[in-house]
Design a protein that fits this description.
5 helices; mainly alpha; globular
Amino acid sequence: MLLVKPWWVAAVPAFVALVLLQFTPFMAISLWEVGSWGVATGIVAALRRFQPAGEPDGNKVSNLYVGLSALAGSVLGLALGKEFILLGAIVGGFMGVMAYSRTPLGKWIKFPTSTFIQYFCAKGLPAIVATAMVGKCIEALIFYYKTCYFNL
C-alpha cells in the first residue's frame, strides 16, 4: 500500500519488520546487514524529507509502475536465490521507471538524460529498498515454514 500511495516512506515499516524478525529464531542475518539496511532506510527517508511537495511527479500511476515492478523483481530474485533479492529489486525498479517513461504521462522522462537518473533516484530507490527488505522478510518466513513443517 505504501508503494502505491506513499504518504510515508515504505522503507521504514519494512525495516521495522526486518528488525523484529531479527529477534526471532528463524531470521539468520548478521548485525552488519541489519545496520546496512538501516543506513539505506535513513538515506531513503532523508531523500523523501528533502524533496519538495509533489516532487518529482506526484502521480500515482508512476508509483504503480515503479513499486509493483520492483516488488515483482524482488520476488523473482527470491525465486532465483536469496542472494538475488536486491538485484531483482534494482532491475525491477529500473524496468518500472523505463516502462513509465514510455507512457504519455511519463514522456517528459527521457532515458539517457539526467532527468531519468533523478527520477530513478526519487521514485525507484525508495521502492527498491522497501521491496528488497520485504523480500528478505519473506525469505525468512519461507525458511521458517520449510524447517518447521518439511524437516526431513
